[in-house]
Amino acid sequence: MNKFVYLFKEGRADMKALLGGKGANLAEMTNIGLPVPPGMTITTEACTEYYRLGRKLPEGLMDEIKRNLSVVEQQAEKKFGDLKNPLLVSVRSGAMFSMPGMMDTILNLGLNEDTVQSVAKNTGNLRFAYDAYRRFIQMFSDVVLEIPKYEFEDILHRQKDVQGVKYDQELTPESLRKIIDSYKELVQAKTSNVFPENPLDQLAMAIEAVFRSWNNDRAIVYRNLNKIDHDLGTAVNIQSMVFGNMGNDSGTGVAFTRNPSTGENLLYGEFLTNAQGEDVVAGIRTPRPIAQLNDEMPVLYTEFSRIARLLESHYKNMQDIEFTIERGRLYILQTRNGKRTAQASVRVAFEMAQEGLITKQQALLLVEPSQLDQLLHRQIDSNATLNVAAKGLPASPGAASGEVVFDADEAERMDKAGKKVLLVRTETTPDDIHGIVAAQGILTSRGGMTSHAAVVARGMGKPCVCGCEAIRIDYAKQEFNIGTIVIKKGELVSIDGSTGRVILGEVPMKDPEISKEYTSLLGWADEFKRLGIRANADTPEDAKKAREFGAIGIGLVRTEHMFMQQDRLPYVQQMILAETLEDRQKALAHLLPMQEGDFYGILQAMEGFPVTIRLLDPPLHEFLPSLEELLVETTELRITEKNPKLLEEKLMLLKKVRALHEFNPMLGHRGCRLGITFPEIYEMQMQAIFNAAARLTKEGYKVLPEVEIPLTIDVNEMKFFREKIEVIAATTMKAANVTFHYSIGTMIEMPRAALLAEELAEFCDFFSFGTNDLTQTTLGFSRDDAEGKFLPHYLERKILKENPFVAIDQKGVGKLMRIAVEGGRKVRPGLEIGICGEHGGEPSSVRFCHEIGLNFVSCSPYRVPLARLAAAQAAISDSENIGTR
Ligand code: ADP
Ligand code: MG
Ligand code: MG
Predict the structure, then answer these.
(1) Where does the chain hold its CATH 3.20.20.60 domain(s)?
(2) What is the pTM of this model?
(3) How far is the CA of 241 from the centre of ligand 1 (A)?
(4) CATH T-level topology, domain 529-619+662-877
(5) Which residues contact 170 (CB under 8 A, 6 or more apart)?
(6) Of 150, 165, 252, 266, most Cβ neighbours within 10 A?
(7) What are the tens digits of pLDDT across the range 379-433?
(8) In 3D, which of 787, 405, 708 has the Cα closest to residue 534?
(9) What Pfam families is this protein classified in (predicted)?
(10) Does ligand 1 come within 6 angstroms of the Cβ of 37?
(11) CATH 1.20.80.30 residue window(s) in the chain
């Protein structure tokens, strides 16, 4: 039989798949001697078995639990269900990947009418015992019996009114007793059953509920969002209880070993005295900063700081720690790698390496490449005058403006309707997750830096301001007020998640500044990576930006973007409309100096780094007005009869557009097929490139143009173009009396080109995979049609695991890439091979390119940093050389 239950002392940190993250870390902490209340973990395998059996607990599981429970009882010196000294436990879910607040914890399990009296006697505190009992009934009923929480809250509030008090802590034992009775009546009425009295029954029911909660709606949403496998299952932790609500020498809290927003190396968190677990995370009472614990319980504060350091150096990562103090004794209830902002992530990694805690390689592995994107998020322009109306906690950095909305469903609806919204709530719960996804930012009136809203927003890189107590929300009226200012649903408000400011109206924003930690860390990345990172850029400005972000070349200049500019389009259209070669050459003569200027600027900006220039790619009709537009215009001109000359011109255009019409433009007359039928167009572009190169060389600049032919399928195309390029290059150099290096290559973006790479390589100095077209032609569907229509279903049904336009389809497209690499290098061992297109900025695709031995990836300038880091990580993890301190 499978072993389904592990005592904490039997587990280890690397057993996350089996014990869940929480269980594995509780085990690890137990084994390094930290004060963890004793307990056991029921494995994720038990959960999958539960589902395999059609939602039934595996046979023998409860017996195994009972056997282990007796060990826990010995350690805790209490007995489960005992009348003298009863053991109470918490039942906590914990999957392999942390899913904060996604599943529910039950505290104080084991209480019933008998044991509650023993607890009262042993602690000498009837109020405490009753309070624990009523909390237990409430949590158990919510999570296990699925009776809505608010029905219990109603009873609680009514009793507070009866007694005439405001806070829970003020309730007398008599009031609590009445609440317990009413709770039980409610349960009886709702379930037609008495509230379970037998602790073992309670335990079995709770375990089942945790297993069930793996598949509740919010857990499913969270997993979809974070691409977590739905089959993993959750573990269940059963742990003896410690109490933070036993008076003012007790308390509970959450702390990060470093600041999760900025990364500053300072204990960061919050605590509440005389409170039980969930009070801090639930955001019901606003807790106090952890530093104040030093004033109140200095010895414990020092002890906690020591443990925090220890955990950080043990795990070699910033930790997020939950603790409870029971009558002056400190217990650690959880540790995990802390979620952090991109900014914090970079700073923590850099500083931990500087402190000698980890190696440079380990530091590089600590930062999630896709997180770097967040650093390029916009901030409020510091020169702007702002109408700051209130201030809350800076829970997640970045700035956001949006129309105020008060519920998650409405936020989602408005987002779908194309509006930008700001979700405003007293606090958020996991049920609001779709609203948080839809919103530009989150603003809450209650809850601290570790409240649900704060944690989730940071994970998503969304701006968030929490615990802004100055705002009063009236859900019924759909408005909130700050003092006398009233803000209604739909009005514009901005938040600054880096400072906590709440600002009326929209605000001007600007691009963020790059920190020195960031620059250094990416410098380290360059030391380890093997792939070169280039950028796609069509203008000198983009080229400069690419250099700033660390690109060592341009992997793709799309010349068609230059054709689209307003001053060029008339000549481009003239060229297309030309009936004779002569007319076409006239138009091209106008374009030549313009193109030359473009290439001059880009080659100059790249200071001798390679610049791959792709000759004209799209079908010609893209430069003409649309058929529909022309039909409307010509019809109007016909009716008004005012301008016969214009009508004639438009009719000509219409005729040409009709002639150029294609059933399948993606597979039509484009790319080098244009260059074959209208060689003069490509010749003009070649001439422009070499003129620019010659001029720059004369002026003393270093240049390295790479002429790239798109959409080839056969070696004869390459042969045709190569001859032309060589002739034009030679004559240009001769005429200008200079020499410069250049190279000639092709995009590999048709399956036939990949398959025949061996032949193509004979006439190529480089290949560059156009993975967008290669994906379209390999899968046989166009990106726009697929993403708009059927691809979402393919992903939902898991027919395809990932969107092949986001991450390279390694199985299919990747296979063609491997064939092309092998074929090309067989003929020309030194063949330079890269990839351009947005895949080049996606971490798993970068890793793949590294694996198949490409020389470079090229992506948009903003993704260059990400690609540098991803390339370094690929190199570090495949060399398995993480280095030593
Ligand atoms: P989550 O996955 O939401 O973090 P946890 O399982 O960590 O849920 O439980 C939530 C809170 O319940 C914890 O922060 C802790 O304060 C409290 N808690 C859990 N187990 C115990 C225990 N054995 N003793 C005291 N408090 C506990
Ligand atoms: Mg927790
Ligand atoms: Mg293409």
Answers:
(1) 529-619+662-877
(2) 0.78
(3) 9
(4) TIM Barrel (3.20.20)
(5) 160, 163
(6) 252
(7) 888 778 899 999 998 888 789 999 999 999 999 999 999 999 999 999 888 778 8
(8) 708
(9) PEP-utilizers, PEP-utilizers_C, PPDK_N
(10) yes
(11) 73-240
Q: How many CA atoms lie within 13 A of 286 on its CB side?
A: 14
Beta bridge partners of 554: 535, 611
Give the CATH number of domain 73-240. 1.20.80.30
Give the total residue count for the chain: 885
Centroid of ligand 3 to alpha carbon of 613 (angstroms): 13
Q: What is the pLDDT of residue 280?
A: 56
Q: What is the mean pLDDT of residues 209-236?
A: 89
CA 708 from chain center: how many Å? 35
Residues ≥6 apart with Cβ < 8 Å to 112: 197, 198, 199, 202
CATH 3.30.470.20 domain extents, the chain: 251-340
Q: What 3 state SS string does 697-757 have? A: HHCCCCCCEEEEECCCCCHHHHHHHHHHHHHHHHHHHHHHCCCCCCEEEEEECCHHHHHCH
Q: If we measure between CA atoms, which residue out of 114, 133, 75 comes closest to residue 276?
A: 133
Residues taking part in catalysis: 452, 836
In the DSSP assignment, the letter for residue 380 is E
d(CA 238, CA 65): 9
- Residue of minimum CA distance from atom 6 in ligand 1: 92
Predicted confidence (pLDDT) at residue 884 exceeds the cutoff of 50: no
Q: How far, in Å, is the centroid of ligand 2 from the Cα of 324?
A: 11
Are residues 174 and 130 in contact, defined by beta-carbon separation less than 8 angstroms?
A: no
* 502-515 tens-digit pLDDT: 999 999 987 777 78
Pocket test for ligand 1, best of 281, 319, 330, 452 (most atoms within 8 A of CB): 281
Q: Is the CB of 278 under 6 A from ligand 1?
A: yes
Q: Is 839 in the pocket of ligand 1 (CB under 6 A)?
A: no
| Fold held by 377-510 | Glucose Oxidase; domain 1 (3.50.30)
Give, using CA atoms, the residue closest to atom 23 of ligand 1: 241
Average pLDDT of span 654-669: 87
Q: Which CATH number fits domain 251-340: 3.30.470.20, 2.60.40.1510, 3.40.190.290, 3.30.230.10?
A: 3.30.470.20
Most confident of 388-397, 468-477, 711-720: 711-720
**Element (DSSP H or E) covering residue 444:** strand 441-444
